Amino acid sequence: PGRKSNPHALRVHGLPDHLLRHQDPFHSVAQDVRDFLDGAVLVGHNVGFDIDFLRHEFRLCGLPWTPGQSVCTMQHARAQVAGRASLDAVATLFGIDVGIRARFHGAFVDAEITSRLFQKMILGSAEMLAVPHLAPTNQIDPPPVVRPSAAPITHGIGGHAFAVTGELTGL
Length: 171
Hints:
mainly alpha
């Protein structure tokens, strides 16, 4: 929030600037996130990457935070299997469907796949615990791009639809 998305990141997560600029900044939820993480074991694929981001954001907010225990499925994969250790490669090796990532790459999808990988690879579970697919709770819909006019249209373009392309850099 508050800054333009990198074009490379946009290709990965598909979240346009119009949506991102209307999200709450981290500092508005930092205390809730810290409370949620307190005493938790963090599980992630390359979890150190996520911990570094959290440390940085908490530092910017002036909130002390020390991560607790963590489990990295990528490190476990490197110790157990030969070859690539990307989330897609390891999850596929363990029989976990990653097809949704071809259409959408986001934190919630990655968390669900990592949870299933953790259960299979580290806990040795043959049957997966249900992982509900939750809608992102921190995402708000941006205001509409086109707002209907309250006043009646009195010029000669009424009833026509227009698509404007390009980038409005001055707004």
